[in-house]
Design a protein that fits this description.
This protein is α/β, with parallel strands linked by helices. It has 5 domains: 54 residues; 96 residues, Glutaredoxin (3-Layer(aba) Sandwich), CATH 3.40.30.10; 215 residues, Rossmann fold (3-Layer(aba) Sandwich); 73 residues, Ubiquitin-like (UB roll), CATH 3.10.20; 122 residues, NADH-ubiquinone oxidoreductase 51kDa subunit, iron-sulphur binding domain (de novo design (two linked rop proteins), Up-down Bundle), CATH 1.20.1440.230. The chain has 25 helices and 14 strands. The strands form 3 sheets. A 6-stranded mixed beta sheet has the order 5-11-10-14-12-13. Strands 2-1-3-4 form a 4-stranded mixed beta sheet, covered by helices on one side. Strands 8-7-6-9 form a 4-stranded parallel beta sheet, with helices on both faces. The chain is globular.
């Protein structure tokens, strides 16, 4: 199996040469489409036909994949494709007004191609730069941060004059790390190879025992025990085993992984290599989200340095039979690919549709091989555990949530950025450190997480209390939490893969009801329907996207009911209002006895 691919050279696209560079492998389809589009700007049907023939696929399959990912275009989008980040924190910083200003200056409607075919302007869900927004993507491979009216005006002029993006002001493309509080993961990096040498000296089974002793849990949100996952994969028979790093940091409000990949790339790759040593893998794959395309060349350079130093490739560090290398697969804009089985489907050159499980990836993952999938932060932690020991890691945090957690703090605070704390840290402590004032709510874990109100700021970040994938969005009392929930509802409806009816239709119905409430045309019946949609989607959808899509809706209705009351003036005095039923629903949906206390007070 070919591991490394070379970038497409400049000039007229040569589809056959591109396919040959990828070994004419069907699993390379997404990368082939990405590289062809980078050359041509879009994906013409005749080129898709050539790709289908060259890879032994049907044209319908290739077109289906091209149509699934939002960064692929089967119609021209112009020499300048401008995508404003539409995450709620970017909106709070004025992104929508800036986008409208750019469209006005260029004479183009949002989502449409300009009359001269030069430019199109649209939105994308989140660029992963919430601490330095408003931000945008240009041509899917470069980011512009800290937008303001002056930059937008200058950008419009540069586009009108057809100035290549590479010649735009370098300061526009600066991405800051914004590390506000570092601990064991964001602190000083160890020398490349130190952890790997330690692992090889101890042996695979002792290193697996250390990982299990540490009680390290996955940092992607689900919190599955890392040592158990590695052990299950190691025990599964198969000619090949595969290590996959999930760098598809697509949860709005999360931006820790891009900093780890910039500052601690060696530790991440080292963690992957140690995992390969433990489970007996030769193939490593990094799934890098499309919005982080700008990191690709730097990461490839780190991989090459590791090969040159004998830390990757054949006979790693002189150990005959230990052959392992890592390739980077760049996504093309699909939030659902953060789910591990959808990610594997994308790695195989398919639409990112989550798989039915079992079998689980540790049994049958990439191309049917036993596969472990862990995220960037988890592999970084594994490297530290190898160096310091499992008992050391287990001594940090809580008994059920060991070690530290990195939080991506954004929104209404003086010092947005990355904060690393031991598990068990209070929500209020993080708010104090980031300079939050008059805080109304915190969205922990992104839209699929939990929205907490002020009376809950004494709760702690831990799997046994408030679990998180890393996002920590702060909203002060000037913010309308109904509009926050509505923005998240639009996000989920946009990102649904469409595979199952409950999610495809349910997310659209939620948006329809919330938009109706926003227009002032809603009734008590709409609130009842929203509760029913939440229950239906939570229990019937194919994957976690649909199951968690109503989390922001549920949390804001229960914790910030006045934001809904403003749209329903007679909410509590309509005929048929049943306080006991409302309290029962509130307690059942949250599992908390104090939920719904505001309803009693209101009544």
């Amino acid at each position: 199996m070919q591991i490394r691919s070379q970038p497409l050279v400049s000039g007229a696209p040569d589809v056959m040469a591109l396919l040959a560079r990828h070994g004419n492998a069907p699993q390379a389809l997404v990368q082939v489409l990405r590289e062809l589009q980078a050359q041509q700007g879009w994906l013409p049907r005749d080129a898709l036909g050539q790709i289908a023939a060259g890879l032994g696929l049907t044209l319908a399959h290739v077109e289906g994949v091209a149509g699934f990912y939002r960064f692929f275009h089967t119609e021209p989008v112009g020499a300048y494709r401008v995508l404003f980040s539409d995450n709620v924190t970017d909106r709070l910083l004025g992104s929508r007004a800036l986008m409208a200003d750019l469209c006005r200056r260029l004479g183009v409607a949002p989502g449409r191609l300009s009359g001269d075919g030069r430019v199109s302007v649209d939105t994308t869900s989140c660029t992963g730069l919430c601490d330095q927004g408003p931000a945008l993507l240009i041509n899917h491979h470069q980011v512009v941060t800290r937008l303001d009216a002056a930059r937008v005006a200058q950008m419009a002029e540069l586009i009108r004059k057809r100035v290549p993006v590479e010649q735009w002001p370098p300061a526009w493309f600066e991405v800051h790390d914004n590390i506000r509080r570092a601990d064991v993961l964001l602190g000083a990096a160890s020398a490349p190879g130190d952890a790997l040498r330690t692992a090889l000296a101890r042996g695979a089974e002792p290193m697996l025992a250390e990982i299990r002793r540490s009680n390290l849990r996955g940092r992607g949100g689900a919190g599955f025990m890392t040592g158990l996952k590695w052990a299950l994969c190691r025990e599964t028979a198969g000619a090949e085993h595969v290590v996959v790093c999930n760098a598809d940091e697509g949860e709005p409000g999360t931006f820790k992984d891009h900093v780890l990949l910039r500052r601690q790339a060696d530790a991440v790759f080292e963690g992957m290599t140690i995992a390969a040593h433990v489970i007996g893998a030769r193939i490593g794959l990094v799934y890098l989200r499309g919005e982080y395309r700008y990191l690709l060349e730097a990461l490839q350079a780190v991989l090459q340095r590791r090969r040159d130093a004998g830390l990757l490739g054949k006979a790693i560090l002189g150990h005959t039979g230990f052959d392992f290398d890592i390739d980077i697969h760049v996504g093309a804009g699909a939030y659902v690919c953060g789910e591990e089985s959808a990610l594997i489907e994308s790695l195989e050159g398919k639409r990112g549709t989550p798989r039915i499980r079992p079998p689980f990836p540790v049994e049958s993952g990439y191309l049917g091989h036993p596969t472990i999938v862990n995220n960037v932060e988890t592999f970084c932690a594994a490297s530290q555990i190898v160096l310091q020991g499992g008992a050391w890691w287990a001594s940090i945090g809580t008994a059920k949530s060991t070690g530290t957690k990195i939080h991506s703090v954004s929104g209404d605070c003086e010092r947005p950025g990355l904060y690393e704390y031991p598990y068990g840290t209070r929500i209020g402590r993080i708010l104090e450190d980031c300079g939050a004032r008059d805080t109304q709510a915190v969205q922990v874990g992104g839209p699929s997480g939990v929205c907490l109100s002020a009376f809950e700021f004494g709760r702690r970040i831990a799997f046994e209390d408030v679990p998180t994938a890393g996002a920590f969005m702060v909203f002060d009392r000037s913010r309308d939490m109904f509009e926050v929930a509505r923005a998240f509802a639009h996000f989920f409806a946009h990102e649904s893969c469409g595979f199952c009816t409950p999610c495809r239709v349910g997310t659209a119905l939620v948006v329809k009801r919330l938009d109706k409430l926003a227009s002032g045309q809603g009734s008590r019946y709409d609130i009842d329907v929203l509760f029913e949609l939440d229950k239906l989607m939570h229990t019937t959808t194919h994957c976690g996207l649909g199951a968690t899509a109503c989390n922001p809706l549920r949390d804001t209705i229960l914790r910030f009911r006045p934001a809904y009351e403003q749209r329903l003036k007679s909410l509590y005095f309509e005929p048929g209002f049943d306080l006991d039923a409302e309290l029962s629903i509130a307690r059942r949906m949250t599992g908390r006895d104090d939920a719904g206390a505001h309803l009693e007070n209101k009544a």
